[in-house]
Amino acid sequence: MALSGNRAARLLETGLALAAELSLPALLQGIVDQAVDLTDARYAALGVLSPGGSDLSDFITSGLSEEQRGAIGELPHGRGILGVLIREPALLRLPDIAADPRSAGLPPNHPPMRTFLGAPIRAHGRVFGNIYLTDKQAAPEFTEDDEATLLVLATQAGVAIANAKLYAELQQRERWLDSVREVATTLLSGDTARTTLELVAQRARELGDADMATISVPEGDGLRIIVADGAGADELVDVEVPLAGSLSAEVIRTERTMVVADAGQSTLTQPMVSIAGVGPMILVPLALRTSTAGVLAVGRFAGRPLFASTDTPLLESFAEQASLALEYARVVSEISRLGMIEDRERIARDLHDGVIQSLFAVGIGLQGTAAVVGDPRLADRIQQFVTEIDRVIGDVRSYIFGLRPSVLTAGNLTNSIEQLAHEVEERTGVTVIVEIDVSLESVLAESSAQIVHIVREALSNMGRHAAATTCRVSILRAASTAVIEIDDDGQGFDAESATPGMGMGNLAERAQAIGGTLEVDSHVGTGTAIRVRVPL
């Protein structure tokens, strides 16, 4: 039916006012307020459908005071008459809500409502929500004129909501571009990877309208949260996440983004739930070139709306930024390590080509002098100095040997130790026997470099001080422990009274670096055994 001239003019003004409002929360409130004004209803509400479309994720009201809303308690989710419009999105007019068999009744402390008029709002080609009107004030029930008014208002609301959502998406995209630029600038400016990750977590939380965000990386037998932003951040940092039975573990396993409606109801655990009371979550894997390096997780408090489908690609882009920061940190560390190796090679080369050759020349000169000296006692004295120079040359060669790290052949610990033993035999003349349980190769793969350093340091000490003829290097399994042992048949020393030197200090530090403990067993005349026990 045609609307009266006065109501049509008011609807036109309403449409213009709604079209000018670009803030979605203000727009939704404006729609329900205009609905009350145009139809002379006592109460109005706008129910926003959840992403799945099966219930309500938000409920905006007009006509209810704050005290009344507080007394009612939890807002409706779309049952009873409200649910009818969700299941059947079409105009619905009832003279008495309670008389309809589909009614589920009103909750405690809810004001009485009798007449009802409702209509769906469509935006972007789908139902965005529903307008509900109750208690017509100037008539026994809502009229056909009210129906027509509500249908026009719902159409205007749909267009205005579509515009507001498009504007919000453009604003969000602009903020996203600014955030990506900020993260890239921070990364390229030389700041630490941690600073970049903290910025990534902060921006991901803000743009995802989340309450907290974390970044966790593999460590030991699980994951450790290294960065947290938002609610509960202080309690979340450094928390360990198990690599079994957790949401993060599932993301690591599948290498795919996971969207969770309510993490508190999941059978998989997550620290965000127990520490910060999270409900909706998105977890995104941080992927390096060859593996998954961790997880970016954002969460909202339980009871808040679910994440929208548009949030996922946004957060995945931030996960790429976090992955880039981790890869950048790895490359910087590798460059630093290579620079240190180059410095050691240079020092070793200078020692060999400069110091050793000079000492050797001095020794040759002294030997020639001893041969022409007529005094036997003086010749013996000169020969003693030549012998001392030979010992110093041997020590310098040992230092050079320590500066040049053994290269792990494709991560093969056994080959590296055997190569090391061969080099020591050639340099010192001591027979070195190697015994390694090959089943420990994969178990100790991450500690291989440190183990080679430990064996090298122990063999170097043996060559300089032990005066041994035989040495045994073994890496064997003892219950739940790997035992790295270097023992010799040399002269030994009093381990209780001896002052620990730099060599023993280095051994202790390297043992601690792989989670092990150092034991030194030595007695004068019986040789020395150095053991490092590493829990498996």
Describe the structure.
50% of the residues lie in helices and 22% in strands. A six-stranded antiparallel beta sheet has the order 8-7-6-11-10-9, with helices on both faces. The protein is an alpha+beta fold. The protein is built from 15 helices and 16 strands. It folds into three domains: 5-169, GAF domain (Beta-Lactamase, 2-Layer Sandwich); 191-325, GAF domain (Beta-Lactamase, 2-Layer Sandwich); 405-536, Histidine kinase-like ATPase, C-terminal domain (Heat Shock Protein 90, 2-Layer Sandwich). Helix 1 runs antiparallel to helix 2 (24-39) and helix 6 packs antiparallel against helix 10. The protein has helices spanning 5-20, 24-39, 66-72, 80-87, 144-188, 193-207, 233-236, 247-254, 271-276, 311-372, 376-403, 413-428, 440-443, 448-466, 502-513, and strands spanning 41-49, 56-62, 92-94, 116-123, 126-136, 212-219, 222-230, 240-242, 258-260, 278-287, 292-301, 431-436, 470-478, 481-488, 517-523, 527-535.
